Amino acid sequence: MSIDNPIETSHAGVVKHVLVVSYSQSGQLSRVVERILTPLHADSRIAVHVETLQPKPTFAFPWTLRRFLDAFPESALQIPPALEPLSLSGEEDFDLIILPYQVWFLAPSQPIVAFMRHPLTRRLLAGKPVVTVIACRNMWLMAQEKMKRLIDAAGARLIDNVALTDNAHTLATLITTPLWVLTGNRQVVGCLPPAGVDEHDIQHAIRFGHALREALHEDRERQAAPLLSGLCAVNVNPQLLVSEKAATRSFFIWGKLLHAAGRPGSAQRVPLLAIYSLFLVAMVATVVPLSLALQAVLRPLLVRRLSTLKQSFEQPSGSASDRMSRYD
Ligand SMILES: Cc1cc2nc3c(=O)[nH]c(=O)nc-3n(C[C@H](O)[C@H](O)[C@H](O)COP(=O)(O)O)c2cc1C
Prior knowledge:
Layout: H1 6-9, E1 16-22, H2 28-41, E2 46-52, E3 55-56, H3 65-70, H4 72-76, E4 82-83, E5 96-101, E6 103-104, E7 107-108, H5 110-116, H6 121-125, E8 129-136, H7 141-153, E9 157-165, H8 170-183, H9 199-203, H10 206-217, H11 240-261, H12 270-297, H13 299-313, H14 324-327
């Protein structure tokens, strides 16, 4: 690392350097990350640099309905917003990169896409091991496929993925999540569970930090094997894959159409956005429940296929829980 690097000079005796990218609107994702980082922060031999992303213009939380819909085309097409300058120079040499992100319209959120496409990012990430950390409603499979391509493009290697999701029924979350991000209130409808990742799951994310700390001490981040296996890092519901794939296709077409209609925030987009919002509600109300119902009926025929898909999308960290008692 360069001699004037504040990360190095302020941590005498440090042996491992970890870069963590941070962006969270409600604070949910930051809280998950904070729990993971607790054991790393407490270790004087590990220096953690948290780089907080600041998109220009900012995305206000809670969202207005218009801003929420207006964020759709660029999210779906992964067209990044501008970012305020990063505090990094690109010369830093990190041992491990932690990339937390939330999902926006089945894609990594715009701020994290902006970071992944930033001119400095390739220099920071090339050849480095990356751990992705997702906190979202429960549809992240297609977003992670996109993130894998962004990680590949940066020349980095994905070694682990942690995904924390809302435990409520998918159909309930399709109502509670939009209400949460549009009002800032997790429980708008009394008879539905509160939106967001369960507090217990957030607290127990500390196990990933314990496992990362131990792995860093043993130089295991240099190897190809995941560091977070056996810790229930992900638990894929393969039945949502059908809806995610169908929605991703339609999002791409609608995204192109809306993006061509005008710039983000422009008045020309409004009529198309209004039509699109009706389409979105119709799709959420039909495609997701229909595909779930159909798969429930066909379950005996699909068991093997779904189990293969589950295993494949759970890579690299997996859903096994055999090391939980050691780190939890
Ligand atoms: C514009 C927007 C789109 C979203 N789309 C999805 C989605 O496609 N899949 C999903 O599981 N969650 C989705 N979410 C929920 C977010 O991933 C995330 O859980 C929530 O916004 C809280 O994130 P925070 O940590 O930034 O507050 C969306 C949220 C927003 C604001």
